[in-house]
Task: structure prediction
Amino acid sequence: MARILIIGGHGKVARLLTPLLVDRGDDVSAVIRNPDHSADVEKDGARAVLADVAALDRDGLAALCTGQDAVVWAAGAGGGDPDRTYAIDRDAAIRSMDAAQQAGPARYVMVSYFGAGEDHGVPPGNSFFAYAEAKSAADAHLRNSSLEWTILRPSGLTLDPPTGGIDVGGDESRTVPRADVAAVIAAVLAEPSTARRTIEFNAGSTPIAEAVRA
Result:
């Protein structure tokens, strides 16, 4: 059994992930900002942890991480306001990495996006620019940390039923079901060889467990 903290525990991917982890015997804590979401994440099988990660300093985030075996960052500002995007997708994410190093859980899984990085190519005038910059900065900080990190970069997310398969790499203009992203997170948490790797993926035909090992 692993103790896993999901930051952004009421997000669409997180809510699909929690039952996968619980069903295999993991102990899941879901960090949520809205107390009205507690019943939902508890129904999924997680322990609800009420906290605003954008408002917490490193010590506050370290308190959330204490006693955990792994942290999954599945939070996001959801676009819109660039200041909030930077505050959550970059600044709070980076503080959570530093907090995890301070508190002890070595394993950290970041849900990023296909194409993130210094050369993301999104022009400053584009409404997606703040998100691209924020995620790219967070990914870079994680890669330079001492954590046993995995960065997941799925292509465009859909609500289609899960397929159980992915293709690693390929064309970033493709899509992948959120349910398969959740399954990829669960798979990398159980596969030590995925540590310190960045995995870009689309929907595909290779079974997920096989794809992440490769």
Observations:
- Residues 82-103 form the longest helix (22 residues).
- The chain has a mean pLDDT of 95.
